[in-house]
Amino acid sequence: MAERAPSAGHRFQAGAARALIGTFRRLGLDRASAFGGWLARRFGPLTRAQRTAEANLRRAFPDMAEAERARILTAMWDNLGRTVGEYPHLNRLAEDPERVRVSGLEHLGDILSAQRPVLFVSAHYGNWELATVPLRRAGIRGAMIYRAANNPLADKLIQELRAPLRNDYYPKGKEGARAMLSCLRKGQPVGLLVDQRLGEGEAVDFFGQPAMTTTAPATMALRLNAAIVPARVDRLEGARFHLRVFPPLEKADSGDLQADILETTRRINVLLEDWIRARPEQWFWVHNRWK
User: Fold this and answer.
1) Does residue 239 form part of some domain?
2) How far apart are CA 110 and CA 123, in angstroms?
3) Among 168, 177, 171, residue whose Cα is nearest residue 216
4) How far apart are the first and last CA of the chain?
């Protein structure tokens, strides 16, 4: 079936996005990051996404004081706006060890040298686009599974901006599942952001409440004996980051494949929850995780 032509709305949105990205590019990294943060702090709270974020925070932290919830929401918008402002500067960030400090590479070295299949798991946390920087700096091309934007023209723009990271990107769904299996079998590292709702997933607890969660990382890791390596990008100050590579996640091994898939998925959710509890302002609260 031929792809539908972009609508007038899609063209307008994509044109506005390109103009904004052009502004961020001309401003340079630090000013683009700061301006993006200001824009999001100013206008984000006026959107419907603010109500979603407030509801999610209340669900995850029911006893949190109102003042702390307001602080987290403001800081969350700042982080999201900065992340957008930094898109035209991903190449500079990826190349500069002063901008993106990496720790925990010892957890990755043994796996890659043994040519063992590896699945990176991360979340929409800090500037999540930088989670593959260790691979780029090592000259390794990763395969990233992502959720395609609803606007195909905007999706094309995002892929153009991601090009300096030197990964292969595959949209979620059947194409992404086939690509993930193929890449792991041939030894190419695969990365996924696993913190968003997946209608075809399984209900696994997240902050003590059932949330539809992808089981793909656990399934692939258990079937192919792949390592699950968590990686997290913390925003420090402005456009500076600390990328942490964690030890491989211990997978369930009861002998019951389906039970082990669910338990391993639960362990991933627990890890992400720990990250978010530590610095809740860095997470993507505007996503309706518990819908």
Assistant:
1) yes
2) 24
3) 177
4) 31
**Residue 171 forms part of a structural domain:** yes
Residue of higher predicted confidence among 106 and 54: 54
Cα separations (Å) of 148 from 115, 151, 185, 200, 273? 30, 8, 24, 16, 25
Query: Domain for residue 291, yes or no?
Result: no
The tens digit of pLDDT for each residue in 178-216 reads 999 999 999 899 999 999 998 888 999 999 999 999 999
Give the ranges where 61-201 is alpha helix by DSSP (H).
66-85, 90-95, 106-113, 133-137, 152-162, 174-185
The count of domains in the chain is 1
Decide if 2 is inside a domain: no
d(C-alpha 266, C-alpha 269), whole Å: 5
Q: Which domain holds residue 45?
A: 8-282
pLDDT in tens, 13-30: 999 999 999 999 999 999
Nearest-angstrom CA–CA distance, 37 and 58:
24
Which 3 state secondary structure label does DSSP give 4?
Answer: coil
> Residue 4 — pLDDT band, cuts 50, 70, 90?
low
Give me the residue label for tokens 């696994």: 204
pLDDT tier, 3 (very low <50, low <70, confident <90, very high otherwise): low
Amino acid at 12: F
